[in-house]
Amino acid sequence: MDEDDALWHQLEALKDKEDCNCAGCLFVNTPDDESPMPKSESDDEQEDKEDEPPQLEHTQRKKAVLEGKELLPKVLKVLDTIHAEGLSLSLFLNALSWGDDQCTASDRVHYARTGLLLSEELPGILLCWYKPACNKNKGRRPAGACCMLKMFAVDCLDGILERQMEHLALHFTLLPSELSEIHLTEFNFKALIETIKGEALLVWSVMARFSHSNKQ
Length: 216
Fold this sequence. Notes:
Blueprint: H1 3-12, H2 41-51, H3 54-66, H4 72-84, H5 89-97, H6 101-105, H7 107-117, H8 122-130, H9 146-168, H10 181-185, H11 189-199, H12 201-211
């Protein structure tokens, strides 16, 4: 049994406080109320470490083992396996991310997918997809997924802005009695600004960006 299988069987046997056996949702938690003594900073750091999903620790261990070793042979071996199974890299990632009913019901697939989505490497992966490094042999920078990721980002931001604007609408709705001259002249704009910053930071960032340039 290799390290991956041993770790998987170990994790599969664990249960969280909700008695959930889903490996992708396993968290090792230490309840705060079990310690009668005040917690030190080192205690907080230890709890933070224990609260991390096991996938992160697993990835870091493997990353340490791979330090200084050649990656290409391993990558080519994985690509060969994907090809031998009748998949392409995009089909494999699609199956891992969603796939069919069996894929979505698989705890092992869920575990692997969660490890990717929560990994420290994911932002760097997306950045490489957005702007791939230049190929030394070809000179030109690959097109990458720049346009696609821009459209995806716009869709995400559009949804966030819409939800935040709907949330802020409550603060901009005034009763007829609140439209008096005294009420309007005494309106606390600073408090409103702090409310927007606290409850709809993206909306505030857009408003601030359009109101002045970086130089201003």
